[in-house]
Amino acid sequence: MIITRRILLGAAAASVSACAGVPRPWTVDAARVYRDAIVINGNLVLPIDPDTPLDQETRDIIKASGLTAAKLTIGGSGGETRAETAASIAAIDKTVALNLDIYMKITSVADFSRAKTAGKLGIIYSFEAAEMLEGDIDAIDQFRAAGVRVMGLSYNLTTPFASGTMSPTSTGLTDLGHKAVARMNSRGVAIDVSHSDELSSLGAISASTKPVLITHAGASIVHPHPRNKSDRLMRALALGGGVMGIYELSYLTTAPAQPSLDVYFAHLTHALEICGEDHVGIGSDALLWPFDTSPESMAQWNASLEQRKASGVAAPGEGPPPFVTGLNRPDRCAVIADGLAKRGYRARSIDKILGGNFQRVFAETWTA
């Protein structure tokens, strides 16, 4: 999901009031697991402002999330050039530097424990798209040196490396894509095929010597959609040691309905059934703060959707805001932990889903 800068920086104060007084519904056991876990969200929009320290209300939202770390998309949906993406990375670096009491740049697996101990939110720099590489695998080295630890091979459309979920014709993993996979493996970059189509994703999993990620998606058998993944792909991902994070986008159900908590758990529990508890996580692809559904906010959201449609990257069913009813809050992962506990999942399994599985894959892929 790509959010315009105006939406990304807006409505923080309203978000705090939206969360205030909301009863915490989770059980004592789930609350303990959540408190102690390394909680990693596989894709999340964070408050970013390189010019001014975050205000107290925004800091309160970050603290209320209970997150240890979150993967942040940089470079958009292929809309930024190599140079523009480098500038975006510099802007996020400045944001972290302005807010060292609350943010931490994640560059190693050891940083997760450091962030947890310090009570900070770790930011995992990542790409969903690959257009910023401009067909040059040496750009992988450049961006890895700048702190990007997760990279994609394609967004919704075709790149020199692979085809995307909305590509008219599937190329699969190209020759250059094979070289990109090998370079990412050798440089300690995790590969994310969330937006690549099935043929390209299977090719990347087969070609990679390390586990591959689908950081944010849904299950196509629960709701058919190009952005949701087949059981075949999910099994291949798990067999290769990878992890699939379940998102909150409208693709979980039929638009214009807003996805419900029951729908979300239908996707999550199906992924657990197919992949197993060692290969599933949470990748919300939502805002850290509650999405503001006021007329003004929705007008901004709809304008961003029109831009996506005009650029050709929009997927079918885009329209409803990016949240699941019941999860439109900073501590969404705690609500998920409670839902898993109520469905009979053990503390050990919940701990893995909350972040342990992502942490394990990062430990296996971030080694050069």
Describe this structure in words.
The protein is of the alpha/beta class. 43% of the residues lie in helices and 12% in strands. It has 14 helices and twelve strands. Strands 1, 3, 4, 5, 6 and 7 form a six-stranded parallel beta sheet that branches. A four-stranded parallel beta sheet has the order 9-8-10-11. Strands 2-12 form a two-stranded parallel sheet. Helix 6 links the parallel strand 4 (103-105) and strand 5. Helix 2 (12-19) packs across helix 4, helix 3 packs across helix 13 and helix 3 (28-36) runs parallel beside helix 14 (347-365). It starts with a helix and ends with a helix. The model is unreliable at 1-23 (pLDDT under 50).
Summarize the entry for a quick read.
The protein has 368 residues and is α/β, with parallel strands linked by helices.
Largest sheet: 6 strands, parallel
Oligomer: single chain
Strand-and-helix sequence, N→C?
HHHEEHEHEHEHEHEHEEHEHEEHHH
Unreliable parts: 1-23
Counting DSSP E segments of at least 2 residues, the number of strands comes to 12
Features of this protein?
43% helix; alpha/beta; 12 strands; disordered N terminus; four-stranded parallel β-sheet; single chain; 368 residues; six-stranded parallel β-sheet
